[in-house]
Specification:
270 residues
Amino acid sequence: MPRLAVIGHPVGHSRSPAMQTAALEALGLGEEWSYGAIDLAPEELEARVRELAVSGEYAGLNVTVPHKEAALALADEASEAAREIGAANTLSFREGRILAENTDAGGLIASLPGGPAGRRALVLGAGGAARAAVWALARAGAVVFIWNRTAARAKSLADEFGAYVEIGGWPVDSPAEVDWGILVNTTTVGLGGEDPFEQLPLRRDEFAETVVVDMVYGDRPSRLLAAAEEAGALTVDGLEVLAQQGARSLRIWTGREPDLDVMRAAARRR
């Protein structure tokens, strides 16, 4: 029986096991395949992943925080997207070799209502998820700006991907009015119920013409998405992005086309 799992630290909150298990069952693979979760501290990552790769039991892994960049370094072979983003969220095992892919980028673009081309996009954060978002949006033709609490990290990421940290000569967190076509929050702000307007460079009145994506997910819309929807924005939550990227991972492992509606419903159940 081929086994799959999501690895992270912590990983108990992940909806991936329920979502991917439902998708496998809908494909008629529930008796043959299984999907679980493995909590790995950073110091355990390399030895454990290499062990799973050669065990013959596992077909692959999804990778979540904080391991996406470290997972890429373990790969014997990586896709163009994973190499250019510098992070992997999907590992496949073939004859003991580790193959790395990044489906976060494609999952984000597929989640957006309308194409990003020609739109001004603000990405909040500078970690692995931010790298995928910046790469995907820029590649799809958006003009991308980056904010991070540590300005040097934002500048480094912007320089690497041809993005920006200033607009009209002002830092993106200045009070000057900016019309963002797309806003993507890849930070953890909101995961613990924090007020995004206290910790992120946002105003409640700037969302009317914006597609707002929040990678934070829970049983209810995040405070950011609730405020954005109230202001008239189109909103995309982290569960939709999770389903879109998860479907791409499952396609890589099984060669089958999963049912996105099944995955969405399972991801939203508790």
